[in-house]
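Hi all, posting the design record for the shared folder.

TITLE: backbone redesign
STEP: 1 of 1
STRUCTURE INPUT:
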């Protein structure tokens, strides 16, 4: 006998009903609070507020979850630890996509990279390769390039003692050298200047404001100049990286079996997953059989490493030096610790790091006040509800790490540089489970290069503080040291730091 309860139709109907109720409920829920906008353009006049500081200001008025309508795009800004947990942990799968505008899509070969790929199988594969192959502690070459380039920078500094040094430019050159070497090995060292120019143009294009992103119909008015610049930038990158990839293919073919893989750079590692121009099988490498990368993937991944690893680390080092020169008593405290632990008769060595707790807290404090990536950019893959508000699909969710790190309901004296606060064993850690402190993000999309980045930062600053004393050039005093930052993908100092090193150790100045 047929009973109604056993009928599959009933279940289908119930599921449909449940779905309908959900959709209707979502429709009825309001967006998070935010300033009123005009029809069509919405809050577009606030476009200059879309920086970490602008959004922090708005959050004071509208709260930890606020909504802006920019033309056709919904923007949600998150400014408290509690809301960040909601986005990055509780509903992490919904918010695991990245937003990308026309420029970003075009310059990343239609999101063939990891940083801008949508959450899914391709992203997962590339993330696995990066975490296990490129940035892993086991890949000694990456760490060796950090060490060697820092040694060479210390050498440069010993030749400039007593003179004003542009610390900002020095550390940017340092991290560019590190990532360039890690990615391409000793290969094409002479091409570096050309590559730096390409990177700078990319950086500008990534950050350029493009009105058609928010108001697509503006495309009618055309923007030939911008499109041309995009095409030219990608053409120069193609020219540069294709040469390098071809050389790596040749190298691989010429040394088939006796390959010890010892001096492999990142492109070598990626070539192991290369599937040839048409996706055909080049090798029968057993471990790589399921993962296949195209040439575009490799190019875009190399750009990720360049962008992810260069400005972030340089900005962190420059900010650390700036805060220490601004707070001379903290500088003295750190140098005293270095003298106590290492003594003044030898250079700093990386094995000393574990005996330098106060120094490491000062690095954490730097990343709290000046997170190199102040806004985490995520995108909603589906309609969702956060804290009773509706967040529609494709909304851009910006997590304001800068504002969260300076939230006065969590941090005492939030704007002061006080490394001591991290000495407390209950102090937050950057592993991503303490949402009041997120310099490397949290969850699926968190920074895969965290260990490598921290290593470079700690090593560089420790060397600079142990081998040298630092002073501001004559006429400058620590009180008026400028601490404004610039806003792009990263937030480095607006002006470069200039300081005068003098040699501090009792051993000779050689490494
Ligand atoms: C002090 C240094 C660094 C800081 C503060 C930093 C911070 C971050 C942050 C905040 C994110 C985004 C997290 C999110 O959206 O939730 C990120 C992503 C990323 N970082 Fe880093 N990073 C650093 C160094 C590096 C280095 C050295 C590399 C590579 C060599 C790197 C490669 C990447 C990549 C590829 C992503 C994108 C990951 C994805 O979307 O799946 N980072 N980083
Ligand atoms: C970076 O590399 C270039 C070229 O090898 C070198 O001239 C420069 O001194 C290096 N810079 C630093 C800061 O190590
Ligand atoms: C790969 O393996 C297949 C069979 O497993 C074999 O026929 C083919 O020749 C191999 N290709 C190379 C390049 O070794």
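Okay, here is what came back for every position:
SEQUENCE:
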């Amino acid at each position: 006998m047929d009973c109604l309860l056993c009928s599959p139709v009933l279940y289908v109907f119930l599921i449909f009903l449940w779905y309908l109720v959900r959709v209707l409920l979502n429709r009825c829920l309001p967006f998070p609070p935010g300033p009123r906008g005009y029809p069509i353009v919405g809050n577009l006049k606030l476009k200059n507020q879309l920086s970490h500081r602008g959004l922090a200001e708005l959050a004071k008025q509208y709260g930890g979850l606020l909504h802006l309508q920019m033309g056709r795009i919904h923007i949600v800004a998150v400014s408290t630890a509690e809301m960040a947990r909601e986005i990055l942990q509780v509903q992490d799968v919904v918010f695991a996509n990245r937003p990308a505008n026309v420029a970003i899509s075009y310059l990343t070969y239609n999101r063939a990279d990891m940083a801008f790929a949508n959450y899914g199988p391709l992203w997962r594969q590339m993330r696995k390769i990066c975490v296990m192959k490129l940035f892993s502690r086991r890949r000694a070459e990456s760490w060796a390039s950090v060490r060697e380039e820092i040694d060479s920078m210390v050498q440069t500094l010993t030749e400039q003692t007593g003179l004003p040094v542009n610390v900002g430019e020095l550390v940017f050159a340092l991290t560019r050298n590190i990532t360039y070497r890690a990615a391409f090995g000793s290969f094409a060292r002479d091409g570096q200047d050309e590559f730096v120019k390409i990177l700078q143009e990319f950086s500008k294009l990534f950050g350029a404001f493009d009105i058609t992103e928010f108001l697509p119909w503006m495309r009618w008015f055309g923007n030939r100049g911008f499109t041309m610049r995009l095409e030219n930038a990608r053409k120069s990158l193609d020219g540069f990286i294709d040469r390098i990839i071809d050389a790596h293919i040749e190298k691989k073919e010429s040394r088939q079996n006796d390959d010890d893989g010892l001096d492999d750079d990142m492109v070598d590692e990626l070539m192991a997953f290369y599937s040839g121009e048409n996706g055909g099988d080049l090798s029968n490498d057993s471990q790589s059989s399921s993962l296949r990368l195209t040439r575009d993937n490799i190019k875009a991944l190399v750009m990720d490493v360049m962008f992810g690893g260069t400005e972030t680390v340089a900005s962190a080092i420059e900010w650390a030096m700036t805060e220490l020169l601004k707070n001379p008593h903290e500088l003295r405290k750190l140098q005293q610790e270095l003298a106590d632990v290492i003594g003044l008769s030898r250079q700093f060595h990386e094995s000393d790091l574990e005996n330098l707790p106060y120094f490491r807290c000062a690095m954490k404090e730097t990343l709290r006040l000046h997170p190199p990536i102040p806004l985490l950019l995520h995108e909603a893959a589906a309609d969702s509800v956060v804290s009773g508000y509706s967040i529609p699909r494709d909304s851009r969710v910006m997590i304001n790490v800068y504002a969260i790190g300076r939230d006065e309901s969590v941090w005492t004296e939030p704007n002061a540089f006080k490394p001591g606060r991290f000495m407390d064993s209950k102090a937050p850690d950057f592993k991503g489970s303490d949402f009041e402190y997120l310099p490397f993000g949290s969850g699926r999309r968190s920074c895969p290069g965290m260990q490598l980045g921290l290593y470079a930062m700690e090593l560089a600053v420790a060397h600079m503080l142990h081998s040298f004393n630092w002073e501001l050039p004559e006429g400058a005093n620590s009180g008026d040291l400028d601490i404004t930052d610039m806003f792009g993908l990263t937030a480095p100092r607006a002006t470069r730091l200039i300081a005068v090193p003098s040699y501090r150790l009792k051993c000779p100045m050689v490494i």
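COMMENT: Confidence is low (pLDDT under 50) at residues 278-284.
Let me know if anyone wants the other runs.
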